[in-house]
């Protein structure tokens, strides 16, 4: 288990069990593969709990078990460390609170706790032209910090009450630098999400966001 001692003063695997939190654990309505909850931690910190689940065809056969290749390779530990690195770099990502895994023979299960962004909504629910710039800036900042997002979609960009954009869900993401192909791959995935969510309106929104991104990226490069 990894955890932030400033928030998690009594580390306990039970923190990753939604049943531990009783009625305070509420399922996340959008995304999460039915394995994410909003909850309140001891001390009052509002958090999001996510159990790692497989997607696609494999996910229909083996939902929650991953092949064990070493502790540092566990999905939860890798995501916790990447998010902590991005937070330290000043990026708008949720604070990672705790990461845990449970090993079972050649496999393991994992879970992650992050701080909840108050009153934030997925960008998928707010396709407003004025939000293209903050969303594009958040993506450009991520790339400038050398990070790549494995699933950049409209549900993994949150907009808070001040219209600031936050990036979430860095599962399978990586740091260490991104090249032009990786950057464009992130944008292409986001375009597909925009079209899937809102059709022609989504594609038009993405076009505005892409122009804002290029401007933000050029500014970051000096």
Can you offer a commentary on this structure?
It is globular, with a radius of gyration of 17 Å. The strands form two sheets. Strands 1, 2, 3, 4, 5, 6 and 7 form a seven-stranded antiparallel β-sheet that branches. Strands 8-9-10 form a three-stranded antiparallel β-sheet, with helices on one face. Helix content is about 35%, strand content about 20%. The N and C termini lie far apart (about 40 Å). With about 220 residues, it is α+β, with helices and mostly antiparallel strands. The protein has helices spanning about 55-60, 75-90, 130-145, 180-220; strands spanning about 1-5, 25, 35-40, 45-50, 65, 95-105, 105-115, 120, 155-160, 165.
Roughly how much helix do the residues carry, as a percent range?
25-40%
Shape type = globular
Q: Label the structural class.
A: alpha+beta
The DSSP helix count reads 4
- Report the end-to-end length measured between terminal Cα atoms: 40 Å
Most strands sheet: 7 strands, antiparallel
Please describe the structure with a list of short key phrases separated by commas or semicolons.
seven-stranded antiparallel sheet; alpha+beta; 4 helices; 19% strand; 222 residues; single chain; globular; three-stranded antiparallel sheet
């Amino acid at each position: 288990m990894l955890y932030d001692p400033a928030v998690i003063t009594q580390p306990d695997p039970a923190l990753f069990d939604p049943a531990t939190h009783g009625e305070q654990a509420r399922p996340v309505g959008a995304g999460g593969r039915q394995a994410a909850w909003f909850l309140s931690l001891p001390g009052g910190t509002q958090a999001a709990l996510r159990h790692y689940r497989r997607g696609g065809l494999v996910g229909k056969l083996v939902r929650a078990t991953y092949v064990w290749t070493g502790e540092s390779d566990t999905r939860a530990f890798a995501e916790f460390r990447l998010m902590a690195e991005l937070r330290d770099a000043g990026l708008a990502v949720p604070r990672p609170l705790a990461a845990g895994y449970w090993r079972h023979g050649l496999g393991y299960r994992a879970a992650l706790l992050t701080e909840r962004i108050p009153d934030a909504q997925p960008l998928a629910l707010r396709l407003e032209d004025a939000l293209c710039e903050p969303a594009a800036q958040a993506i450009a900042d991520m790339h400038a910090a050398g990070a790549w997002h494995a699933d950049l979609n409209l549900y993994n960009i949150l907009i808070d009450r001040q219209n600031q954009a936050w990036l979430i869900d860095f599962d399978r993401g990586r740091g260490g630098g991104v090249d032009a192909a990786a950057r464009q791959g992130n944008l292409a995935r986001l375009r597909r999400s925009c079209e899937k969510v809102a059709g022609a309106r989504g594609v038009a929104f993405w076009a505005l966001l892409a122009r804002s991104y290029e401007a933000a990226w050029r500014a970051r490069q000096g």
